[in-house]
């Protein structure tokens, strides 16, 4: 079972983005400049950038980003293990963010802090 035809989706997305670019070429030019700027130093390499992009894609829940950057990661030579590890980092960071924001709820709810245990 497959959740989505990712190759077909990537093609459809490209057409829709192309149409948006026709309607708003200045915005598309600015987007391309921003994307290009992230590659200027070359310190990370294409594979690492694509693996980071996959983690961000999962965190932001962007199917388009998943489709584009999975293909990019594979093209850059990312292995199954590298992709899985990048996704594991995304899962952990998102769990950590939920933990931090849960602490904010505790503070907002003005719940009492745990009392220190007395020494025996």
Write up this protein.
This protein has one domain: AhpD-like (Up-down Bundle). The chain is elongated and about 70 Å long. It starts with 5 loop residues before the first helix and ends in a 12-residue tail after the last helix. It has helices at 6-23, 25-37, 46-60, 63-75, 80-108. Helix 1 (6-23) crosses helix 2 (25-37), helix 3 (46-60) runs antiparallel to helix 4 and helix 3 (46-60) crosses helix 5. 73% of the residues lie in helices and 0% in strands. The model has no long low-confidence stretch (mean pLDDT 93). The chain is mostly helical and 120 residues long.
Task: Please render the helix and strand layout as text.
Layout: H1 6-23, H2 25-37, H3 46-60, H4 63-75, H5 80-108
Helix pairs in contact: 1-2, 3-4, 3-5
Q: Structural class of the helix and strand makeup?
A: mainly alpha
Total of DSSP H or I helical runs spanning 4+ residues: 5
Low-confidence stretches: none
End-to-end Cα distance, whole Å, is 59 Å
Q: Any idea of the CATH topology?
A: AhpD-like
Tell me the strand percentage band: under 5%
Per CATH, which architecture? Up-down Bundle
Helix content: over 70%
Give a count of the beta strands, DSSP E runs of length 2 or more. Answer: 0
Summed up, the domain count is 1
Q: Can you tell me the CATH superfamily?
A: AhpD-like
The CATH class = Mainly Alpha
Shape descriptor? elongated
Cα-atom Rg, whole angstroms? 20 Å
